[in-house]
Specification:
This protein is an alpha+beta fold. Helices cover 55% and strands 14% of the residues. InterPro entries: Claudin, Claudin10, Claudin_CS, PMP22/EMP/MP20/Claudin.
């Protein structure tokens, strides 16, 4: 039970971090530095690109069309949305299957539901990890490319939050999957105990009477003596 509670805390915390990464502004950041102060800061996420001047005024522009976006941005959007949805369903499965709750049926059914929750959280963590890594790969490849002459960006805070949440989701999911081993082994021990308790061993002893601690054999009578007929003169 304590392992499941710890796994639920880790995986749910990771899901919250992944969900907060999706609307975060600073996926990639760049700045133009003047002699004394920063003249402008450029930042972008999965939905828009913005610039902020030294006075704090921001000017943002949403991406105009879904079909006109770069392929990596579309892939990151799909992976992050899938990660949020999987984490949501994983939280519901975990609440139903945990031993500290009163729903879910028998222990075996709850163990199966917990395992499903663990797999769902692992898939959620892998999806968000893939999205953040793909976005970061694009930033680093453009930054270190000497032939790329456009605005170069650096890794933003949202990527590090997404990586942290992905790791927590994967760890919590693995703990959920490993927690079912104790449930199945306990159920197997109970079945073995019940089976052994129903089997009784009765020792077989030879026929006879016990007298003063010694076994006296019972005399065997033949069927001929039992079937012998006596006439009336033999009783006199």
């Amino acid at each position: 039970m304590f392992q499941e509670i710890l796994a639920f805390i880790l995986s749910t915390s990771g899901w919250v971090l992944v969900s907060s990464t999706l609307p975060t502004d600073y996926w990639k950041v760049s700045s133009d530095d003047g002699a004394v102060i920063t003249t402008a800061t450029f930042w972008s996420n999965l939905w828009k690109t913005c610039v902020t001047d030294s006075t704090g005024v921001s000017d943002c522009k949403d991406f105009p069309s879904l079909l006109a976006l770069d392929g990596y941005i579309q892939a990151c959007r799909a992976l992050m949305i899938a990660a949020v949805c999987l984490g949501f369903f994983g939280s519901i499965f975990a609440l139903v299957g945990m031993k500290c709750t009163k729903i879910g049926g028998s222990d075996q059914n709850k163990a199966r539901i917990v395992c499903l929750a663990g797999v769902t959280f692992i898939l959620s963590g892998v999806s968000s990890l893939s999205a953040c890594s793909l976005y970061a790969h694009r930033i680093t490849s453009e930054f270190f490319d000497p032939m790329f002459v456009a605005q170069k960006y650096e890794l933003g805070a949202a990527l590090f939050i997404g990586w942290s949440g992905s790791v927590l989701c994967i760890l919590g999911g693995c703990m959920f999957c490993f927690s079912i081993a104790g449930s199945f082994s306990k159920s197997h021990r109970q079945r073995t105990y019940i089976y052994n308790g129903n089997v009784s061993h009765v020792p077989s002893f030879p026929k006879g009477k016990v007298t003063s601690g010694h076994l006296r054999p019972v005399p065997q009578y033949s069927t001929s003596s039992r079937n012998h007929h006596f006439d009336k003169n033999e009783y006199v």
